[in-house]
Write a structure and sequence with these properties.
five-stranded antiparallel beta sheet
Length: 378
């Protein structure tokens, strides 16, 4: 984005300095600087050197030309990236930078806008005020909270932060994500920074306004507003700027089912899982097989999965395994019963604890984990 810096003109002419965002703003001439310029003229008449004209004498009507460098009011708000979050997560952050692109120290009012048109509002519980803290960058342009950029400062509208030319403010907005928010839902949140008069100004804390009575070459620096527009929350050349960050929900979408089949009518191979099923009827002595299938079609890993199955009194436990796309997990709490354990009175508990089921990776649309349980019919 190209911006124009308007300085007071020389002898009534207007001088324009054009720079591109990302250039060395610290090289801008400070507001209020008095710029003088002189020249000398020598000449001869009939080969005789005449008295020179020298404009360096301030008392001379043809003395130095001068102008005062005006105050360029410019700033940039930028998002430091979106944040992928889980439903029900708390204290989730969106980070923004505020850069003083002008040539004088300014203060800044900060506000947050929950944008409409997205999937949900992140101010959970409803109407909760977002927490805003900030860090003053140490000059390297890298967000380093608690390290190079020091400790967090809670934003206080009555004591707004100030930035010198080219300084950067890191602003952290913290909110909670509502429980049950659907996978891939988004919440857009914008930070708006409004330029204020600094503490040293007689009008400290008030929004800057553009000079409106034309260019006066010398005297106090006049305000020239040259900011762009980042979002619909503000307009160009009004002393404010904004940017939007997004919370993106990554949720596990989990479903589960249980099926039963006859592994063998005579109980053959019941303790050897998987083995080769032979089918038949569910008569006493037959081996039945239960398969619990868990599917994840979401965009996040389902963690800390616990599956608890208590076999019916009419069975004797044979064995159990888990597999598929499950990672981690164990049957250790409690341990599996021994083979041929009578399941009367809840004696046969199959408890898978601590398993995870990752999100599918395209082109797959789901991952599945399974728990296979075998038992004899009494």
């Amino acid at each position: 984005m190209t911006k124009t810096t308007i300085l007071k003109g020389l002898m009534g002419a207007t001088a324009l300095t054009v720079f591109t965002a990302g250039s060395a703003h610290a090289q801008l001439t400070p507001a209020g600087t008095n710029v003088q310029n002189t020249f000398t003229l020598t000449y001869d008449v009939g080969g005789v050197e005449q008295p020179p004209i020298d404009t360096s004498d301030p008392g001379d009507p043809n003395g130095p030309t001068e102008f005062t460098v005006d105050r360029l009011v410019d700033l940039t708000v930028a998002s430091n990236g979106d944040n992928t979050v889980a439903p029900g997560a708390t204290d989730e952050e969106l980070i923004f930078s505020v850069t003083n692109d002008g040539n004088d120290t300014q203060a800044y009012a900060l506000s947050v806008v929950e944008e409409g048109g997205d999937d949900f509002d992140s101010n959970d519980p409803a109407g909760a005020t977002p927490v805003i803290v900030y860090y003053i960058d140490d000059g390297d342009g890298v967000y380093e909270p608690g390290a190079g950029d020091g400790a967090a400062v809670t934003y206080d509208p009555a004591n707004p932060p100030e930035l010198g030319p080219d300084d950067v403010l890191w602003v952290v907005v913290t909110q909670d994500i509502p429980v049950g928010t659907a996978d891939a839902s988004t919440a857009d949140l914008s930070l708006v920074a409004d330029t204020l008069e600094p503490a040293a100004s007689p009008n400290a804390g008030t929004p800057v306004t553009a000079d409106g009575d034309g260019n006066t070459l010398t005297g106090a620096a006049e305000n020239v507003l040259a900011d762009g527009s980042g979002t619909a929350n503000e307009v160009a050349n009004a002393g404010d700027h904004s940017a939007t960050g997004t919370y993106i929900v990554a949720a596990a979408s989990v479903s589960a089912s249980k099926a039963v089949t006859i592994h063998s009518e005579d109980g053959t191979g019941c303790t050897s899982i998987p083995g080769s099923p032979t089918g038949g009827y569910s008569i006493p002595g037959a081996c039945v097989e239960y398969v619990i299938t868990v599917a994840n079609t979401g965009s996040a890993t389902a963690t800390d999965i616990v599956i608890n199955d208590v076999l019916a009194d009419e069975l004797d436990f044979a064995g159990a395994v888990f597999g598929g796309d499950f990672t981690g997990g164990s049957f250790a709490s409690p341990a599996l019963p021994a083979a041929n354990t009578d399941c009367t009175s809840g004696a046969c508990v199959v408890n898978l604890t601590g398993a995870s089921l990752p999100a599918p990776v395209a082109p797959a649309v789901e991952t599945t984990g399974t728990v296979t349980i075998r038992a004899f019919v009494k």
